[in-house]
Amino acid sequence: xxxxxxxxxxxxxxxxxxxxxxTSRHPLQPHGIVSLQEDEKRLYAxxxxxxxxxxxxxxxxxxxxxxxxxxxxLSIQLxxxxxxxxxxDKTKLQAFLKLADEKALxxxxxxxxxxxxxxxxxxxxxxxxxxxxxxxxxxxxxAMLADxxxxxxxxxxYQENNxxxxxxxxxxxxxxxxxxxxxxxxxxxxxSYQVLTxxxxxxxxxxxxxxxxxxxxxxxxxEIKNANFIFVGNGLIIANSQNxxxxxxxxxxxxxxxxxxxxxFYETCFFDSTxxxxxxxxxxFEKCMFDNQNENENKDFVSFISRCxxxxxxxxxxxxxxxxxxxxxxxIPSLEVVNCYFENCGNDKTNFxxxxxxxxxxxxxxxxxxxxxxxxxxxGKDIYVxxxxxxxxxxxxxxQFVQSNKKDISWEEFSKNESxxxxxxxxxxxxxxxxxxxxxxxxxxxxxxxxxxxxIFSNCIFKYSPVYxxxxxxxxxxxxxxxxxxxxxxxxxx
Length: 494
Hints:
- By secondary structure, the protein is of the alpha/beta class.
- The termini are far apart.
């Protein structure tokens, strides 16, 4: 080591060298404008760089700008690019706007600009005004602007191997429309959303975020872990195979048609989604979340459209506003719902049955330690059991049926037309039982087809909650129950 080379100066030089090598060793994917003519790419890059010069350009910004130029395959050095910036005038602006209109470049230009200008600092007032002017000059609509801002924010907060990826995705209530050519943003895919393909699923997609833009048809056993999906437009996943499983995933506006023999969801969240399930052997949901905030959507959130041997739903929460949470349309010989929570599910703005849970055909079920709160429907707010589901055991253990507010109607009308539970045509042999359950401001509509029942309600508490029997009723239908019905009849007869 020579006398004039100090260890710290050598290390600084090494750090600078390594910093410069980042652009070559970790390049961006080919830019969306890579196929343009050289002069067109230079014009694009010039206006991109123009937005940077209102404040000192950081090392990180310079490096990212070089990476963008490389991804465009544009042969120009930064000093030469800054010379071009100094030559910007009205004529060049008109040429750039014409190019942006002809090639539909407004989303990619805004995306690049928002990431580059905000990489490690806030926008200056002039940068913000300039971007706003570009938005107006390029006739960018609100939906596109919202998409680009969302996508640029995702790039800026990207962290490789982020342990909180799923938690971030849950909090990220994305509402993307993508009514532009998303291929233009392909150089940002790695840091935002990649477009899902069948080949990606076969390779493995864990730990990434994906856009589903078209129909994805899966005909092989599929296991997906630690992934975030946003469905846009006609995006749809159709799966028909032996097994389909999800673990630690997040789905936004998903449309899933699942026809597997065995389906398993674990710690997976669904926002504003629609699931049609025809699993033949077994379906399992554990520690999952189902949430709907889209008031324009009223389809059932989860529909079981064919017979399934066994369904178990454990420790799941449902807040499917305006929509039925679970609709069992065909025979379910074994249904267990354990430690679940249903709140603000259902729809009372229609004459159709839109309860939180609907059971249509012959089914045997157990609801255990499950809470129903403030669900809505014309009748059967929490659960509606259709006449076709009359046979088989129907057990409710330690459940709660709660409405926060009392109905301002007569006691009889409340019991007949505003029930929280409606069980129609229950035949002897159904083994209908409510054990250790609590009813608060919640009426029950119970249609027994014979007089052979006893001990239907055991150790239950009824607070302003009548039970309506339009057909058969026996006093020993109730055992060790308590009532706080404000002096009203505990039972209403038909």
